[in-house]
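haha ok so turns out i had the wrong file open the whole time. this is the CORRECT one, sorry everyone. sequence first:
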Amino acid sequence: MLTDQVSADFPWLSFSILFPIAGSLLVPFIPDKGEGKQVRWFALGIALTTFLITVFAYVNGYDPSEDGLQLVERVNWLPDLGLTWAVGADGLSMPLILLTSFITALAVLAAWPVSFKPKLFFFLLLAMDGGQIAVFAVQDMLLFFLAWELELLPVYLLLAIWGGKKRQYAATKFILYTAGSSLFILLAALGMGFFGDGPPNFEFTHLAQQGFSTGFQLLCYAGLLIAFGVKLPIVPLHTWLPDAHGEATAPVHMLLAGILLKMGGYALLRFNAQLLPEAHAQFAPLLIVLGVVNIIYAALTSFAQRNLKRKIAYSSISHMGFVLIGIGSFSSLGTSGAMLQMVSHGLIGASLFFLVGATYDRTHTLQLDEMGGVGQKMRIMFALWTVCALASLALPGMSGFVSELMVFAGFVTDETFTLPFRIVIAGLAAVGVILTPIYLLSMLREIFFGKENSELVSHTNLVDAEPREIYIIGCLLVPIIGIGLYPRLMTDTYSASIDALVQRDLNAMQSMPKSSMPIISIFKSSPAVISAPTIPIKS
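then structure:
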């Protein structure tokens, strides 16, 4: 049974979920002549208010020094099914809740030029806002599955209606991959929720105290790894992402890169690492190897891409490999770096894909071979591209540098793994770090200072960056540079939760008998006693 249930003074998290969804339902009733001039202001107001709600929740009810759940709200929704409206926040979820509301507000502003079915477009953006916040805030596994499914339909429609020439193919591939893999979440939720005697209970605090056998944990872990690996994405489950990015519009790009990929990383931490610690000890080396594959394979593939959107999409896949290495490590520094990498990439990825959309609006092409020589006419745009590309290649002083350095340092200095394994993994990951500036800087050269396309330069309206575009990039660069210069702005919000999570995983790994260790042992561990992991709730 759940104990120490504490309700928040005000239902901040429930409000942040339901407010944008309620606002989306009002969009069809906004008087508008069909051009979207009125509805876009309404949508921006709803998105900004949602962001302020999440900020107030953090300021007024969240204590970063606590490792347990806070802002807890619980309502018995469907008790016969064991379904509870349970929401809360800790260090794993609060930073991503803030990131979601922030990126969505900027995505609404990025959608300012949308004139085709604007009411439906902004309706879907606001509905996604509430659904994505719910993914990070809910504390019931069955409710998590419903929230996970809720955000799939808006993305599908945004791709299928406003995408490029191959939008139907990209949208169908997205829904098949993500909806199909999410069945593993449902199966794992049912298996864990009905475990043991008594009525079904899917709340995380209850599941964390269950004595799941190692075999059962391994089975659930494998299924959840597939489900979350598609969303992260993990190679070879990644092929939907370049197609989706290749056909999406700039606001949808920002949501895909800034938020959707982070759902996979968050879920791996929340479920695989936190609720299934013994299985995580078995699978951790695989996560690290998959992370290296992501980094190198996606970086090399990005080299070969001549389509600007697909090049940045593969760059995103490469950067998410550091998240896998951090999650697979057994060090607080490495896992903290994985968390920071999710936040950092959310900001940097959103900025790069917004610039891709802005550049396409001017050049009407995504092929690098058809660009070139536009730097003299778009000097501000070139400056924005340069700063964001430098952030992506992990320039010191930017958030990407800090997060990748934390992952590297945390993994290399973690004596849980043998020294040869750490050296090999670090060396291979370093190859990806070297490749990233090469393909990003060469991309900038081709776009702005490559061989001049006289037809493009003379016949295209190559206007420079507009104030709205400068403002959006400026809003993203402030936290990118702020975190890069003073990482504790972000790391202090989740360090207590990460420390507690890593300690539970270390105890689980040390308690494994030698007979259950991987065939090729890469661990340096000794048997220890482990108690059932718990998720404390702040009182």
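Residues 332-363 form the longest helix (32 residues).
again sry for the mixup
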